[in-house]
């Protein structure tokens, strides 16, 4: 009996099956690649405390500091992304508030207060169609934690590093509250909040009379 030979038709069928399965497998890898990369390397931006000086109802403005405001001028820019770290989120609402150059907020009464009607170094803005934002302000000053704050009594008198508060909200994602710190600030290491959130400390670059910082935000997907 001679050697058995696979008919050409059978070889063609086997080849087509192999190519089809290979294409399916390759397609699965290509589809899973970004998801796998996102799972391994993409993380939502770390959250932080709201702090005692938050006020609701700040006006819509991206320029927090007027021309006569004391302090080094600062411009913050960035992009707000969805949970995949790639999809920009247009129309995300950002609230920003901070102390002035001397470490003072627009009222010296901590808490959710309403007795002051003006808003100083506070504002709200929406990201543009590319999910980008830009805030013009000044470098905030450091300040000691006020005494007798509920839950924070043990930190009274502790000098906080310079920081800017931000809240970011978008309808399909979980709202994020955070504080932006600045690398090189000597008070970060011993701060009970900043010291545990190194990802929230940003580099600043000098651009003439301006300092510029870039911080991208990643929101976690809501249920």
From TrEMBL:
Pfam entry (one): Dioxygenase_C
Highest taxon, organism lineage: Bacteria
Keyword Oxidoreductase: yes
Annotated ranges, domain Intradiol ring-cleavage dioxygenases: 64-203
GO molecular-function terms, A-Z: ferric iron binding; oxidoreductase activity, acting on single donors with incorporation of molecular oxygen, incorporation of two atoms of oxygen
Record's keyword annotation contains Oxidoreductase: yes
Alphabetized InterPro entries for the sequence: Intradiol_dOase_C (IPR000627), Intradiol_dOase_core (IPR015889), Intradiol_RC_Dioxygenase (IPR050770), TAT_signal (IPR006311)
Keywords: Dioxygenase, Oxidoreductase
Family to which this protein belongs: Belongs to the intradiol ring-cleavage dioxygenase family.
Protein known as: Twin-arginine translocation pathway signal protein
Organism name: Crenobacter cavernae
Record lineage: Bacteria, Pseudomonadati, Pseudomonadota, Betaproteobacteria, Neisseriales
